[in-house]
Design a protein that fits this description.
By secondary structure, the protein is mainly α. The longest helix is centred in the middle third of the chain and has 57 residues.
Length: 82
């Protein structure tokens, strides 16, 4: 990223409005590298979130099953009324 800022600083310092084709290609290359890194980071985060969500869903299903069993037990203890 520092190469990109150096390139931009050179352009600003030289009071140039337009970039050469080589400068454009270098800037595009650096932007693509940054985008690729950001995409990889996002993929890792999404994967971690999906894993956590699946684990939480399984835990919720387990808790719901426990609650259902306790409800049946209480109903049985109360003599089947309710």
């Amino acid at each position: 990223m520092s190469r990109l800022w150096a390139l931009i600083s050179d352009i600003i310092r030289d009071n140039r409005i337009e970039m050469t084709i080589d400068e454009r290609i270098e800037a595009l290359t650096m932007n693509l590298e940054l985008l690729a890194r950001a995409h990889e980071d996002t993929n890792r985060r999404v994967t971690a979130l999906l894993t956590a969500t699946e684990r939480d869903a399984e835990n919720i299903r387990s808790l719901a099953r426990i609650a259902e069993l306790h409800e049946h037990r209480l109903t049985d203890l109360e003599g089947g009324q309710g």
